[in-house]
Amino acid sequence: MTTFHEAGAPPGIHVPAVRLPFQSMPPDTSPWPPEPPEDAPPARAIVLQPASKIRIRPVRWLWDTTPEGAPPTSHGRVPMDSLVIAAGGPGIGKSQFAVWATARITTGTLPGELWGKPRGVIYAASEDSWCYTIAPRLIAAGADLDLVYHITVKDDGQLSARLTLPTDTSMLGKVAEEYSIGLLVADPLLSLIDKGINDYRAAEVRQALEPLVAAAERHRFTILGLAHFTKSGVADPLARVAGSGAFGQLIRSLIAFAPDEDSGKDQFILSLEKNNLGRVGLPSYRYTIQPFTVKTPEGPSYVSRFVLGPETDTSVRDVMREEMAAGGVDRTERTEAAEWLYDYLTDEDRGGEGQPKETQAAAAQAGISPNALKAAKKELGVRSVKPKGVKNAQWSWQLPAAEQEEPEG
């Protein structure tokens, strides 16, 4: 029995205890931890699966150049349902290669898994005109135009919005499956990323591309993303790809492009510089970019097309090493320097030769680097000459006599 004394009673005066009946509390039967509301999202959980329960599957190759007699798929170059990067310098034929691949896939003539099985291609290009460039190139390459799709996004009733990643990734995956798409060409890849994403931050770019890679695997299409090389001065093609820090582990294959200086003008090299799912060190290919005329109802359209040539032991990595040995001068820079040097030396005031220091100073003023000038001098066959028998004579740079002759006409 519990007794209580009345509070505030004077000292010495006892107040009779008041008896209170005992009240027992009902037992707590609620679950612990408390159950979430019915409309609450499912809680995170860790799930373990033994490796013995995972289905093992072989890699399927979109482009497979395995020669007769070699082990099957031993020369696979482009794995299916993955992200592949095609990278190189400006004006070297990356877009023409993408059109070439598009034509082969839409006609079922690309050696690999889709040989004899034509599939559709979504061509997302942000730099070239469809009516002036892309469509004529597709015709020149022999593509099935009914299976090549120009892509836009309807936004607020307007069919003018551009495909944006990752915003449109889910819709893109569903459309790709609906139209039996085998390839998505992104030319260039980084141009499809939402403008709010800083493409200099690798983490942000990966967050934009990871859903696309997952969609490609889920809906069974391959992504061919075009990218540019930077002038970083290293001989690693992957490190030269603009945005390579973001691509990192996302890409499964890197196809690189470079000029083939040993074979003459307008000759190029294509090599596989990364192959996560297959063999590395596969032979490279020479290729050319050839002019082609497409007839239209309004007159001829002059375009160019990619023509794959024979195999070669020279790789894009080899070309980059040679550039570094020559001071890191690429083909475009050397060509520009050679044109400048020729114009400078053939000026009527110089007659095919010039003083080295004056020439170097003029080149610097024109934005020509010393290494580029040196490479141009070698390309033009410019000789350093000094008159014999003349005291205190100065050296001069002189074009070969044949280069100074006026053309007939």
Provide a concise account of the structure shown:
The protein has eleven helices and 16 strands.
Task: Characterize the structure shown.
This protein is an alpha/beta fold and 409 residues long. The protein is built from 11 helices and 16 strands. A 9-stranded mixed β-sheet has the order 5-4-8-9-3-10-11-12-13. Strands 14-16-15 form a 3-stranded antiparallel β-sheet. A two-stranded antiparallel sheet has the order 1-2. It is elongated. The termini are far apart. Residues 402-409 have low confidence and may be disordered.
The whole-number mean of residue pLDDT values reads 85
Structural class: alpha/beta
- Helical proportion, percent range: 25-40%
% residues in beta strands = 15-25%
Mind telling me the C-alpha Rg? 34 Å
Walk across the major sheet and give the strand order.
5-4-8-9-3-10-11-12-13
**pLDDT < 50 stretches:** 402-409
Put simply, the count of helices is: 11
Count all strands and give the number: 16
